[in-house]
Amino acid sequence: MLTRRIRSAAILIATVAAAVYAGGLWFFALVAVAASLASYEFVRMMKRGGYRPFWPLSLALIWLLLVDARYPTWGLVRPALTAAIIFSLIWQLFQKDTPTPVADWALTLAGALYIGGLASRFIALRDGPQGIGWMALVLLPTWLGDTAAYFVGLSWGRRKIAPRLSPGKTWEGTISGWVVELATTAIVGRFVGLSLGQGLLLGALMATAIPFGDLAVSMMKRRVEVKDTSSLIPGHGGMLDRLDSLLFAAAVVYYYARYAVGAR
Q1: How far is Cα 211 from Cα 53, in angstroms, rounded to an integer?
Q2: Do 59 and 105 contact (CB within 8 A), yes or no?
Q3: Contact between 256 and 205 (Cβ < 8 Å)
Q4: Short-list 212, 247, 221, CA closest to 44
Q5: Computed from CA positions of residues 33, 249, 41, 233, in that sequence, does the dihedral angle turn out positive or negative?
Q6: Which of 61, 67, 111, 258 has the fewest Cβ atoms surrounding its Cβ within 10 A?
Q7: Per-residue pLDDT reduced to its tens digit, 72-129
Q8: Contacts of 162 (CB under 8 A, 6+ apart)
């Protein structure tokens, strides 16, 4: 199991690193594929719970949000959201055999906004000034913190942090992840011009947000009684399992860069 996990992680890291370095449409394509797969897993999970969100419309909205992040001057967000609200409601009016039309409509939009809205921050970060450095601030603290939390929790974890949502997550593992995230953000932040204090502040914000990204997907999985969002990635579960923390991290880093240090 551990060997499969390490092998899969190595392939994923190499693929993401290459796409981040290449930037442009290569990076856009990677984010679009990952978001599409995560959206499919989200819809399939909800169907396991008895709901029927309309995946084609959700997927279309995700792509529009990603395109808007790539080409912000086109002004796609408002018309895209307006059209999605109208067409998703119209679609549900014709679904006479569903017992949960309102929930299905809400999940169609919520899944797209959750995945597409947060994934679009990856593109906005990479396309801006010092894009590689800011993406490193998303990826490295999250990955290294997650790795530390996994191994420390596995070896020494005793106190459960949220047994109802994620039985395997412990305080020992979570705190070790916080420490690694703080240290990594302080170091990597220097490469995009952050002072030590700014890097530590960003690290504290990320360390606070990242566990909630993981717990949010755990909440969804517990609701529909599945262990992983899929078995797409050997040893790691599904694409949404791999993106959950990164989505929250990308949002924190993007808005910190934009409003706290004026780098966007």
Answers
A1: 27
A2: no
A3: yes
A4: 221
A5: positive
A6: 258
A7: 999 999 999 999 999 999 999 998 888 999 999 999 999 999 999 999 999 999 999 9
A8: 169, 215, 218
Report how far apart, in Å, the C-alpha atoms of 60 and of each of 101, 104, 109 are: 20, 16, 11
Contact predicate 223/171, CB 8 Å: no
Amino acid at 39: S
Left, alpha or beta for 225 (phi > 0: left; psi -120 to 50: alpha)?
left
Q: Residue 245 in contact with residue 64, Cβ under 8 Å? A: no
Candidates 180, 117, 122; CA nearest to 148 is 180
pTM of the predicted model as reported, rounded to 2 decimal places = 0.93
The residues near 175 (Cβ < 8 Å, ≥ 6 apart) are none
Tokens representing residue 25 in the block: 């449409």
The DSSP result for the chain, as a single string, is: -HHHHHHHHHHHHHHHHHHHHH-HHHHHHHHHHHHHHHHHHHHHHHHHTT----HHHHHHHHHHHHHHHHSGGG--HHHHHHHHHHHHHHHHHT-TT-S-HHHHHHHHHHHHHHHHHHHHHHHHHHHSTTHHHHHHHHHHHHHHHHHHHHHHHHHH--SEEETTTEEEEEHHHHHHHHHHHHHHHHHHHGGGT--HHHHHHHHHHHHHHHHHHHHHHHHHHHHHT-SSS-SSBTTTB-HHHHHHHHHHHHHHHHHIIIIIS---
| 207-226 tens-digit pLDDT | 999 989 999 999 999 889 88
* Calpha distance 191→130 (Å, rounded): 9
CB 174, CB 160: distance < 8 Å: no
Bridge partners of residue 233, in order along the sequence: 237
Q: Is the dihedral of CA 184, 16, 65, 38 positive or negative?
A: negative
Residue 22 in tokens: 């290449």
